[in-house]
Amino acid sequence: MEPAPDLTGKVAIVTGGSRGIGRAICIGLAQAGVRVAVASRTEADTSSESDYQRYASGTIHETAETIRAQGGTAVGIRCDLSQAEEIEALVGTTLERFGRIDILVSNAGIDCEAPVPDLDVDLLDRCLAVNVRAPLLLCKYALPAIMAQNSGGSIFAITSGSARTYRSGRVAYSMSKAALERMFLSLAEEVRAENIAVNLFGPGRVDTWMNRRGDWPGTAHIPMVQPEEVIPAAVWLAGQTAQTFTGQVVERAEFGATWGTIES
Question: Among 67, 156, 157, 191, which residue is least crowded by beta carbons within 10 Å?
Answer without folding.
Answer: 191
